[in-house]
């Protein structure tokens, strides 16, 4: 376990760290989409609906960029 944490902290991409970073970035993009949806459309749609829509549409833009970035970093 200690070795896996060192790999994450060291910035090395391994078969262990790639799924961890992917999952963490997807969770963060969902949270960011929900917050952005509430801020942009909270008054018009209601905060819960705006957060739900933001959480669904936030990862649509983030996930392809995350995966492309990880692929580029893995082959450098």
Describe what this molecule looks like in 3D:
By secondary structure, the chain is mainly alpha-helical. It has one domain. It contains 3 helices and no strands.
Which terms would index this structure?
single chain, 76 residues, mainly alpha, 3 helices, 0% strand
Dominant shape: elongated
Distance between the termini: 26 Å
| Main sheet attributes: strand count, strand direction, barrel closure | none
What is the count of β-strands?
A: 0
Into how many domains do the coordinates divide?
Answer: 1
| SSE pattern | HHH
Cα Rg: 16 Å
| Structural class by secondary-structure content | mainly alpha
Which runs of at least 5 residues are low in confidence (pLDDT < 50)? none
Mean pLDDT: 87
Percent strand equals under 5%
The helical percent reads: over 70%
Helix count, per DSSP?
Answer: 3
How would you briefly describe this protein structure?
This protein has helices at residues 2-10, 17-45, 47-74. By secondary structure, it is mostly helical.
């Amino acid at each position: 376990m200690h070795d896996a944490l060192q790999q994450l902290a060291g910035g090395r991409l391994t078969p262990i760290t790639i799924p961890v970073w992917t999952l963490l970035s997807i969770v963060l993009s969902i949270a960011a989409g929900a917050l952005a949806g509430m801020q942009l459309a909270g008054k018009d749609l209601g905060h819960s609906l705006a957060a739900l829509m933001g959480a669904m549409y936030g990862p649509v833009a983030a996930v392809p960029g995350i995966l492309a970035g990880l692929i580029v970093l893995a082959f450098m």
